[in-house]
Amino acid sequence: MTTLNNKEHVVILGAGPAGLATGHELSVSGVKVSVIDRNNFVGGLCNTNVHNGYKFDLGGHRWFTKNEDLNNWFRRLMGSEVVWVERISRIYYDGGYYSYPISILNVIKNTGLVTIAYAGLTYLLSALQYSVFNKPIKNMKDAYVAQFGGKLYDMFFRRYSEKVWGLPCEKLSSDWVSQRSAGLSIWTVIQESLLKTKSDNESLIEEFMYPRDGYVRIPERMAEDIVAKHGAEAIKLESTVTRIKYHGPNDFEVVYSDANGAETSIPATTVVSTIPLGVLPRIMEPACDQAVIDAARGLSFRALVTVNIILKKERVSIDTWLYIQDEDIIFGRLHEPKNWSKAMVPDQSTTSLVLECFCTKDDHIWSMTDEEIGQRCIEDLEKKLKFIDSSEVIDFTCVRTLQAYPVYDLEYADKIAVIHDFLAGFEGLHIVGRGGTHRYNNADHSIEMGLLLGRKILGYEVNHMDVNTEPEYHEIKTSRDLKRDYYVVEEECN
Question: Quick one: 253 and 326 in the same domain?
Answer without folding.
Answer: no
